[in-house]
């Protein structure tokens, strides 16, 4: 029983990271109708930025953190202008392929600069964690879970209560109508990319001390985050979060009780099972084609 | 669009047999095989040629699934790996015959490809991209971790070749011959029934469905063909290099295949060979880049973005597009005879019987208990103000929407629960208000897809009969002399006529016309009216939806009027148009 609680805690912690990246996926998908296959590389790039500022240059952790996030905002702008924007009038297939190209370009550029050795990034806190009854709560996982809760609340407030949030929603639902109402669609899409890059970056920085900082971390996280969005219900914000948490828990238990080497395979098996038996996911968005 | 030129009976089109027309290809291929067998290469060149040959076959697969059918596959390296491991483990560990292993590997990839396709192809392309990546990752995990079977990261060594091709030189010649054969099949595929169906699905899934194509099965076929070609290529690769290991079949390799395909031009096997050749040779020239890990793949990634941005059809696509445009203006289309419409007459007096048809969207009753009876050989009009449920009714009839309640009987067959392509096979033909043609094809090819309707009794066997039928239909609408032009070069009115020709070529029992006069100028409307008369004169039953009261009142003998999803009037044209409810629905009541 103690082990179960311990695994549950770890699973939710790692699941929260998937949830954050999945949220980034969903936001871009809703704004542009395109899945960004370089979403995971956002996390990877941010983690490396953290390594540059905090480890290599020795800047204070909080300052490195802020500058890395600012860097990610800029990165979102460049990504939009370089990859999505020139193809915005084409069908989804060229855009998907371009984002895959971007993902390969990013991870291998980092590989060329930093080499294949994984980098180590310290956690935010000096204390490694606290013992609560039978369960040991790792401080970094606590931080991840806390930040995720805050972000979910912020997200809700931002999209439901602010004018900018409403404009973003309008753009994602009907671009033509939004532009007729005087909303600049390209600005809204730009903001979405910035927000999404920052979210992905945040997830990368938070998870870096738990995993290693490596060039593969991006694609691994992205694939699982995408699986999470399908499990939760594609295009659904709540679904992305629930799906991410569920996947983290499934994976942690699978690794503990079934097989460690195949840990990364569970997510994909669950994904394929969902696609076959319940493609609309837990929250049931209709995926039937529109006539 | 005059009607006079279809009156001259012309001899049927007969072209030379394919095998003669394509003789230059086979001669060229034979020369290449002879060169591969006869020329002396050093080991390094031989390896590069062997790699280029086998990779090209795998990239052919992508030209089918991505180029022809518009579906993405990011796991081609996994299928390539299946074939390679089948030959590797089979010949090295199990000491089986090479040919047996090669065929077995192809069979395994066929099953894997079909299964993977069936699980996701009903959903959108994003899912397919993600699922194929997942599949690729699982395959790599298994190759590395299932050490008992696959030898793990060590890979499989001492893979054997067939007795017949023991020397590297003869094996290369064998691979080049395979390349030529597979290349021929893939090159010819777009002009077969399956290939046309794939292109139709790529251009417009909805229109493909209502023209009698089973969209899902077509996609799964394309995906399975792609997988098999990957497996075949992998098997040949394993025999050639005698050693395989998991890193040769990773996600990065799948991306490399994709890049090769995109660079050369995804629509044609010629493009595949160009792209593969370039991406194998260029890195050999740029070997120094490999000293920095990652740099090399980073350049691949960048090239993918740049190709997609600046050269969407690849190198060969650019060349062949120019050629197609030039040929359309120089090549005279074949002459065609007069179009015969012989609608089936198996049922009774009523061709289409709709009873209690309803379609609800949540709480909105778009169509609510509508009855329609269309008499054989008549022109029947369905009219009503905007938002009255006309187009929804048509979409339910053709199967794009599922009926909430009610029954649809076409010529004695209950089609209420059939998929669009099954209804088409049962004898339904339709056009769309917003034209849905296959935009990357010529007018003739569009109409050929219509003519290929399953159950069309008006075409004989073979491609010539098909072309003949399509030409007749195009000539019937007055566009026979422009058959080889691409859709984009036709005016809006002419595109509408091509859509009608596409439906006519299928020899339907009932023709549904969705606002055929919308967007036409007054001359075009007159011509449309003439065309409808000529169609009706051949006894084809027509159900027409339109706003144009002149057209409707002159063409139709019978009118059904809808308002707010309900039938408010039904009967002989003139009587219905004077009906007080109809007048008030259109003009408002006092």
TrEMBL record, chain A:
<keyword id="KW-1003">Cell membrane</keyword>
<feature type="transmembrane region" description="Helical">
    <location>
        <begin position="266"/>
        <end position="283"/>
    </location>
</feature>
<protein>
    <submittedName>
        <fullName>Amino acid/amide ABC transporter membrane protein 1, HAAT family</fullName>
    </submittedName>
</protein>
<feature type="transmembrane region" description="Helical">
    <location>
        <begin position="238"/>
        <end position="260"/>
    </location>
</feature>
<comment type="similarity">
    <text>Belongs to the binding-protein-dependent transport system permease family. LivHM subfamily.</text>
</comment>
<dbReference type="InterPro" id="IPR052157">
    <property type="entry name" value="BCAA_transport_permease"/>
</dbReference>
<feature type="transmembrane region" description="Helical">
    <location>
        <begin position="36"/>
        <end position="55"/>
    </location>
</feature>
<feature type="transmembrane region" description="Helical">
    <location>
        <begin position="180"/>
        <end position="199"/>
    </location>
</feature>
<dbReference type="GO" id="GO:0006865">
    <property type="term" value="P:amino acid transport"/>
</dbReference>
<keyword id="KW-1133">Transmembrane helix</keyword>
<keyword id="KW-0029">Amino-acid transport</keyword>
<dbReference type="InterPro" id="IPR001851">
    <property type="entry name" value="ABC_transp_permease"/>
</dbReference>
<keyword id="KW-0472">Membrane</keyword>
<feature type="transmembrane region" description="Helical">
    <location>
        <begin position="61"/>
        <end position="85"/>
    </location>
</feature>
<dbReference type="GO" id="GO:0022857">
    <property type="term" value="F:transmembrane transporter activity"/>
</dbReference>
<feature type="transmembrane region" description="Helical">
    <location>
        <begin position="92"/>
        <end position="114"/>
    </location>
</feature>
<keyword id="KW-0812">Transmembrane</keyword>
<keyword id="KW-0813">Transport</keyword>
<feature type="transmembrane region" description="Helical">
    <location>
        <begin position="141"/>
        <end position="159"/>
    </location>
</feature>
<feature type="transmembrane region" description="Helical">
    <location>
        <begin position="6"/>
        <end position="29"/>
    </location>
</feature>
<dbReference type="GO" id="GO:0005886">
    <property type="term" value="C:plasma membrane"/>
</dbReference>
<dbReference type="Pfam" id="PF02653">
    <property type="entry name" value="BPD_transp_2"/>
</dbReference>
């Amino acid at each position: 029983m103690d082990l179960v609680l311990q695994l549950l805690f770890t699973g939710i912690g790692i699941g929260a990271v998937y949830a954050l990246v999945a949220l980034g996926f969903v936001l871009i998908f809703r704004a542009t109708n395109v899945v960004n296959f370089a979403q995971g590389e956002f996390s990877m790039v941010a983690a490396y930025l953290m390594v540059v500022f905090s480890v290599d240059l020795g800047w204070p952790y909080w300052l490195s953190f802020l500058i890395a996030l600012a860097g990610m905002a800029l990165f979102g702008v460049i990504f939009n202008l370089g990859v999505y924007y020139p193809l915005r009038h084409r069908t989804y297939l060229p855009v998907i392929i371009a984002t895959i190209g971007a993902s390969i370009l990013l991870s291998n550029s980092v590989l060329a600069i930093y080499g294949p050795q994984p980098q180590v990034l310290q956690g935010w806190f000096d204390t490694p964690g606290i013992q609560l009854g039978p369960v040991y709560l790792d401080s970094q996982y606590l931080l991840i879970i806390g930040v995720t809760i805050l972000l979910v609340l912020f997200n809700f407030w931002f999209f439901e209560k602010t004018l900018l949030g409403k404009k973003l929603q309008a753009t994602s639902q009907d671009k033509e109508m939004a532009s007729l109402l005087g909303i600049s669609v390209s600005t809204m899409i730009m903001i979405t990319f910035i927000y999404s890059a920052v979210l992905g970056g945040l997830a990368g920085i938070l998870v870096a001390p738990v995993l290693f900082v490596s060039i593969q971390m991006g694609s691994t996280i992205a694939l699982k985050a995408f699986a999470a969005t399908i499990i939760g219900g594609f295009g659904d914000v709540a679904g992305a979060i629930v799906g991410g948490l569920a996947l983290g828990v499934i994976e942690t238990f699978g690794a503990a009780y079934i097989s460690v080497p195949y840990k990364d395979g569970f997510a994909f098996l669950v994904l394929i099972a969902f696609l076959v038996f319940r493609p609309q996911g837990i929250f049931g968005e209709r995926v039937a084609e529109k006539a | 669009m005059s009607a006079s030129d279809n009156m001259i009976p012309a001899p049927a089109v007969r072209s030379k047999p394919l095998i003669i027309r394509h003789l230059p290809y086979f001669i060229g291929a034979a020369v290449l095989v002879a060169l591969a067998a006869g020329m002396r290469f050093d080991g390094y060149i031989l390896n590069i040629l062997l790699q280029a040959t086998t990779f090209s076959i795998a990239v052919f697969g992508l030209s089918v699934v991505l180029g022809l059918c518009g579906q993405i596959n990011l796991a081609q390296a996994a299928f390539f790996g299946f074939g390679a491991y089948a030959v590797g483990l089979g010949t090295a560990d199990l000491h089986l015959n090479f040919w047996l292993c090669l065929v077995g590997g192809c069979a395994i990839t066929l099953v894997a490809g079909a299964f993977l396709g069936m699980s996701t192809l009903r959903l959108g392309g994003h899912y397919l991209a993600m699922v194929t990546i997942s599949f690729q990752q699982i395959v790599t995990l298994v190759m590395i971790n299932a050490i008992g079977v696959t030898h793990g990261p060590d890979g499989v060594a001492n893979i054997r070749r067939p007795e017949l091709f023991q020397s590297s030189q003869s094996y290369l010649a064998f691979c080049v011959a395979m390349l030529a054969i597979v290349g021929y099949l893939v090159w010819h595929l777009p002009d077969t029934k399956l290939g046309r169906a794939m292109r139709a699905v790529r251009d417009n899934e909805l229109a493909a469905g209502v023209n009698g194509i089973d969209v899902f099965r077509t996609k799964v076929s394309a995906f399975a063909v792609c997988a098999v070609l990957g497996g075949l290529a992998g098997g040949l690769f394993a025999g050639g290099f005698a050693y395989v290991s998991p890193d040769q079949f990773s996600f990065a390799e799948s991306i490399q295949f994709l890049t090769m395909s995109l660079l050369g031009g995804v629509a044609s096997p010629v493009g595949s060979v160009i792209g593969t050749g370039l991406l194998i040779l260029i890195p050999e020239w740029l070997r120094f880049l490999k000293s920095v890990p990652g740099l090399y793949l980073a350049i691949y990634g960048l090239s993918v973005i740049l190709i997609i941005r600046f050269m969407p059809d690849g190198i060969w696509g650019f060349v062949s597009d120019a050629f197609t445009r030039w040929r359309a203006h120089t090549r005279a289309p074949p002459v065609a005879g007069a179009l015969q419409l012989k609608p089936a007459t198996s049922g009774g007096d009523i061709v289409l019987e709709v009873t209690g048809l309803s379609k609800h969207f949540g709480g909105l009753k778009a169509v609510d208990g509508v009855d329609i009876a269309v008499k054989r050989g008549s022109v029947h009009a369905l009219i009503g103000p905007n938002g009255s449920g006309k187009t929804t009714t048509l979409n339910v009839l053709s199967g794009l929407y599922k009926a909430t309640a009610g029954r649809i009987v076409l010529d004695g067959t209950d089609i209420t629960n059939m998929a669009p392509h099954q209804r088409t096979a049962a004898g339904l033909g339709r056009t769309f208000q917003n034209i849905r043609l296959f935009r990357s094809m010529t007018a003739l090819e569009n109409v050929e897809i219509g003519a290929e309707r399953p159950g069309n009794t008006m075409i004989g066997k073979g491609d010539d009969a098909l072309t003949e039928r399509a030409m007749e239909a195009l000539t019937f609408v007055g566009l026979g002399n422009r058959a080889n032009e691409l859709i984009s070069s036709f005016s809006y009115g002419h595109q509408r006529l091509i859509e009608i020709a596409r439906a006519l070529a299928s020899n339907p029992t009932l023709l549904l016309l969705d606002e055929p006069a919308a967007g036409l100028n007054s001359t075009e409307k007159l011509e449309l009216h003439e065309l409808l008369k000529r169609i009706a004169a051949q006894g084809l039953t027509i159900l027409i939806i339109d706003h144009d009261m002149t057209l409707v009142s002159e063409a139709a003998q019978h009118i059904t009027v809808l308002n707010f999803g309900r039938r408010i009037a039904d009967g002989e044209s003139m009587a219905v148009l004077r009906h007080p409810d109809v007048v008030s629905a259109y003009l408002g009541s006092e």
